[in-house]
């Protein structure tokens, strides 16, 4: 015997819907969306943001090395703050545009 989850009525084993209320006795699996892509890893709200952040850190290290070799006076800390700020703003804009679509 199969019991209805909605009304509790006993139903025959071969029944697909409840004889009392008509509810489905065997819930169906949730349909999947065909066009939905798996979510990419995000950092700063950007897809592949971790890779982008890594590239910027690499650029900062290269600039620091060049300042040491050529004796340039460049404020690397200020550059790093600007880069992180740009990543945060870009992530926020990306998140807002993704919610609308």
How would you describe this structure to a colleague?
By secondary structure, the protein is mostly helical. The protein folds into 2 domains: 26 residues; 58 residues. 47% of the residues lie in helices and 8% in strands. The chain has 2 helices and 4 strands, in the order ββββαα. The protein has a two-stranded antiparallel sheet with strand order 1-2. Strands 3-4 form a two-stranded antiparallel ribbon. The radius of gyration is 28 Å and the shape is rod-shaped. The mean pLDDT is 76.
Descriptive terms for the model:
2 domains, 8% strand, rod-shaped, mainly alpha, 2 helices
Major sheet, described briefly?
A: 2 strands, antiparallel
Oligomer classification: single chain
Helix content, binned percent: 40-55%
Rg, rounded, reads 28 Å
Order of helices and strands: EEEEHH
**Number of H- or I-type helical stretches:** 2
Q: How would you state the average pLDDT, rounded?
A: 76
Helical/strand content category? mainly alpha
Integer count of domains: 2
Given as residue ranges, the uncertain stretches (5+ residues, pLDDT < 50) are none
Shape descriptor: rod-shaped
**Main sheet: which strands, in order across?**
1-2
Give the number of DSSP strands: 4
- Report the sheet-strand fraction: 5-15%
Termini separation = 47 Å
């Amino acid at each position: 015997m199969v019991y209805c989850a909605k009304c509790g009525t006993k139903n025959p084993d071969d029944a697909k819907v409840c004889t009392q209320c008509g509810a489905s006795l065997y819930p169906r699996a949730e349909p999947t969306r065909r066009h939905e892509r798996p979510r990419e890893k995000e950092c700063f709200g950007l897809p592949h943001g971790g890779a982008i952040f890594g590239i910027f850190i690499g650029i900062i290290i290269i600039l620091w090395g060049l300042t040491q070799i050529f004796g340039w006076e460049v404020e690397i800390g200020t550059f790093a703050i600007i880069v992180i700020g740009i990543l945060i703003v870009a992530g926020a804009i990306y998140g807002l545009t993704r919610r609308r679509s």
